[in-house]
Amino acid sequence: MEPIMVEMVSRPYASAFEKFAVGKPEILCLSADLTSSCEVDGFRDRHPDQFLSLGMAEQNMMSFAGGLGLAGFRPFIHTFGVFMYRRPYDQLMASIAYPRRKVRLMGFLPGITTPGGMTHQSIEDISVMRSIPNMTILETGDATEVESICEAADSIDGPVWCRVLRGSVPRLFDTPIKVGEMRVLSEGDDILVVTSGITTEEAMRARSALKEAGLSIRHIHLHTIKPFDHKQLLDHIGSVKHGVVTIENHVTEGGIGSLVAETMADAGVGKRLVRLGLKDTYAHGGSRAYLMRYYGLDALALVGGIEDIMGQKFGITEEDMEAARVDDVHSLVKAEAL
Amino acid sequence: MRNKKTSEEVALGIRRRVFEHSMRNNGGYLSQACSAGEQLAWLYNEELKLGDPTLPMIPKPFEGVPSADNPDYHTGAGYNGPFEPQYDRLFIAPAHYALVAYATLIEVGRMAPEGLEMFNKDGSSVEMIGAEHSPGMEVHNGTLGIGLSTGAGLAYGRKLKGEPGRTWVYMSDGEVQEGQTWEAVQAASFHGIDNLYAIMDVNKQQCDGAMDSVMEVGDIKTKFQNFGAVCVEIDGHDINAMRDAVKEPHEGKPLIILANTNPFHSMPILEERFPRLHYVRFKSEDERARMNVSIAKDLGVEPIDYSH
Questions:
Q1: What is the domain range of residue A303?
Q2: Could you tell me if B160 and B133 are in contact, meaning their C-beta atoms sit under 8 angstroms apart?
Q3: With contacts defined as CB-CB under 8 Å, which chain B residues touch A25?
Q4: What is the CATH number of the domain that holds A23?
Q5: Both A25 and A146 in a single domain?
Q6: Which tens digit of pLDDT belongs to each residue from A219-270?
Q7: Which 125-164 residues of chain B touch chain A by CB within 8 A?
Q8: Is A87 on the interface with B (CB under 8 A)?
Q9: In sequence order, what are the residues at sequence separation of 6 or more whose Cβ sits closer than 8 angstroms to the Cβ of residue B270?
Q10: CATH topology of domain B7-57+74-299
Q11: Reported ipTM
């Protein structure tokens, strides 16, 4: 197949955060010993007055950020997503979420975007955040969304959980995140495909092959997971004949698959739903492409989900997909091999 | 509005109110009034620089939790006065000391006595475990160990803004078993947060009993110093010692005052209940009656008529 010509952007967060934060003294950049890993090392060096190193002490960092919020600051916490909710969940609840502090939780390495294995992969964070009252959830799926995540997050009157991509990130979109909206990437009428984060690119890879198989796909991409426009989703579901496939870089319990399922059940929609993602399992360490194939999060898995709903095989193979990007584990655009 | 009473008188008044409340309700956080009376009296009556209360003397009922749909939400911090740069702020980290803290507010004229009648009643904001919306509270602290970190963050932010007001955290010694307390001290020291002050009720008690039987914590003073705080140890029933302790130089470091206290100070009959002093619920009518007579005598009041 003909490859999509995708522009790759190097470290989009680094420049976007700096551009956003400079000149806003009420914005503070917090880090827990993963400063270069979260692409804010340049900001630290150039703007030390807005940078605060809190060390490997996340429990303190969360409550400390709550205190900064109380003092009128809007802290952006930078670390790997897992480290911001698993150990310091109590602090996240009591010091940030309950009092609606304007703390922006910039969670790097969402899902299986890291070979760091179980301890580094935030595979259930969306599920956790969806169940926290007062929390807003945003997820980035391309360089443009990474570039606009700071402004989007900072527009929220309350805490915001962000899944942020780092390193070399493809540019898929040309408009910034508009909180509360969803992107309609194709408007077919057979199957609705719902993606977010890195699975959006996978669905785009399968686009031509599915078209050639005679399928009309409606594809929507979610950057805003909470709050959520249920009515708009129902309109899209109502526009397709056969059913819905969700595919997410997350466990299928509590993430966007659950979000779609709940929306359908609440409205009494009787269409088929196939939820793809990590199926009640932890992942392990490996390259992104390997993990997406192994756990069924890639373009081929999506085709399988569509075949399930349609009750027929289309004979689509990996060779029919548009070019996959192969990331070098030891790429210079990442601070370390994680 | 301060110094109408001496801090010793305020401490006695706190104990009388907590005693009366506990007798009438067949139990309460009596021991915390014994240990904390002087410290809270000293803070509110002398040391804290606070403006006049901004909330009604008789607390409003519970008006909902923080949410986008509750735009009029406010905390109970208004009982400590307005948020202005020159004023101090206070967090009560062990939120189960709420009964004692409410009694203090009444004694220093920041809340009406009717407020204590609302304690732990359904629909009331005067909650048993002090919530954000409870009188005198500004943040949730019921999960022990988060108070000092929150105070450090607030103090750092106020320092950045050039506000002269201090941030105080009232702590309990059981909190040093939580790792977060040590994370907070090291961060406050590393970032030179010297507008952060804490006074800790070292009564050596926790929910299960005497701390040494639950988890030994060693020499707290040395540990705080090693983590970067300036730490002063005093007799927690000696108000003059508090007045001196707060003068300790601590440039670039938080100041932590360890107030060594007696968990049955001024109510010696409570020693019968040692080592389970966390919440004293009378075990029998006989015990209730004996304690009523004994403690009333110690506090110089008539026994409480709790028959109706």
A1: 183-313
A2: no
A3: 160
A4: 3.40.50.970
A5: yes
A6: 999 999 999 999 999 999 999 999 999 999 999 999 999 999 999 999 999 9
A7: 132, 138-143, 145-146, 149-158, 160-161
A8: no
A9: B30, B31, B34, B263, B264, B277, B280, B291, B295
A10: Rossmann fold (3.40.50)
A11: 0.96
